[in-house]
Amino acid sequence: MNWSREQRYRRWEDASKTERRKLENLVKQCNWRQTFHIQPVTGLLNDPNGFSYYNGEYHLFYQWFPLGPVHGLKNWYHTKSKDLVHWENVGVALEPTNEFDSHGVYSGSGIEHNGELFLMYTGNNRDENWVRHPYQILAVMNKEGQIKKLEKPVIPAVPNGYTDHYRDPKVWKDNDCFFAVIGAQRKNETGTIMLYRSQNLLEWDLEGEVDIGLNEFGYMWECPDYFELDNHGVLLFCPQGLERDRDSYHNIYQSGYVLGSRLNVQERTLVHSGFHELDRGFDFYAPQTMEAPDGRRILVGWMGLPEIEYPTDSNGWAHCLTLPRELTVKNGRLWQNPVKELELLRGEETEAHITIDNETKGIEGFAGDVYELSAEFSNFTAEQFGIELRASDKEKTVLKYDTQEKKVIFDRSESGQAAGIQYGAVRKCLVETDKISFRIFVDVSSVEVFVNDGAEVFTARIFPDQNSQDIRFFAYNGKTDIQAVKYKLTSKERASS
Ligand code: FRU
């Protein structure tokens, strides 16, 4: 279906009760609804926003267009959790209400200040000629969860030299000062990041561009995020317009980081050793981080990408968020692991210790569509070995290691209904090692793989048949030892449906 501008800019209230019920029922009938991931009730979810800890709970908002699986008039939808695992749908938090955000409450971040949660976001306005005007706006949430927008934008204009692609403020505090980074496009159509400073979150001074030495690196950088971890500065951003380079940059847009010295806010420099992709899979974009009360740095991403159709579209919804990942620094890189709270989901456990030799083999008790699976491969002589997930006689999602190429390979070409096929169905990444471990989280329509204790991550939506539930281990031209543990995962959602 082609959505007209009028249809994309309708609000939830503009739809009749019957239309809304119809949409909700259509979504409920979908066989690819997730069980332990954050997903929209109806319509389209994109970037995580305002990820924070406030008043004893984690708050995680997301970009939301309720009326269908397209990018239309965006709201912030609010979810909250006490443990980063069980999330409660709170409802719409911010919707377009005035001339500054009339065409979308776009992405932004949250920070606690004076006992309230300050939400800073980009208001997207279009004038009568459909020219875009971005405003950076503040809203404040109190302990009762009531949210009030400030009447006037706190950053009302785009500075000279930049286009109207100017958005996604991410705020942090350093000593007594607040800083914000904003994703921007220079007039010469290259991407960059702007740094602002404030004493009170209400008045902001532009400091200038952050110089990380990547001056011609895509045409726009979205969703920047800056934090410090283990004495390093880390700058995340999403460059659009990079060319494919061997195994890198295969998705429509990229998401990655530079890691190095702490950001020098006077000179606005961060010295680093290069740009690295955060995720080596298919469906990952616009991540945002927060600092947990115990000091952990936690990241959540959008498990999806713009401008790509997904098989759930015909059921009136699209996308979900990734699992929360804890970030650490090792060997000059970010390592990512699922937060330990996810163990709360663990149910029935099955274990196996086997050696397989030039064969493909299922193991008693290993099957399913919602589980956590850890597999450690050692003493291998095989050319390739790995696991087939969500498999049947007609489908499989393949995760393997190639000992010649020294690459982890994720292949969703036979995973069921295809998504984003124009960007290929195979992703690879170099991992030089003599031991491979995969920690895999499978939900009804997604797979997240943490390789070798978080050195690399592969994230993918998959759309297999409900009955494709086999798990098979394989080794080609040689053997490997495998130690595997599987847990059924049980979330409230599935238990009650
Ligand atoms: C990234 C993005 C942001 C923008 C938001 C709008 O996916 O394009 O730059 O604020 O989505 O929904």
Which key terms come to mind for this protein?
single chain, 497 residues, mainly beta, Tachylectin-2, Chain A, Jelly Rolls, 2 domains, 3 helices, 4% helix, globular, binds beta-D-fructofuranose
Task: Identify the CATH architecture of the largest domain.
Answer: 5 Propeller
Q: Number of domains in the coordinates?
A: 2
* Helix content bin: under 10%
Counting DSSP H or I runs of 4 or more residues, the number of helices is 3
Name the CATH superfamily assignment of the largest domain: Glycosyl hydrolase domain, family 43
What is the CATH level 1 assignment of the largest domain? Mainly Beta
Class by alpha and beta content:
mainly beta
Shape call: globular
Query: Looking at CATH, which topology of the largest domain would you report?
Result: Tachylectin-2, Chain A
Number of strand elements: 32
What number is the mean pLDDT? Answer: 97
Beta-strand share of residues: over 45%
The small-molecule ligands in this entry are: beta-D-fructofuranose
Using only C-alpha atoms, the radius of gyration works out to 22 Å
Query: How can the largest sheet be summarized?
Result: 10 strands, antiparallel
How far from one another are the termini?
Answer: 30 Å
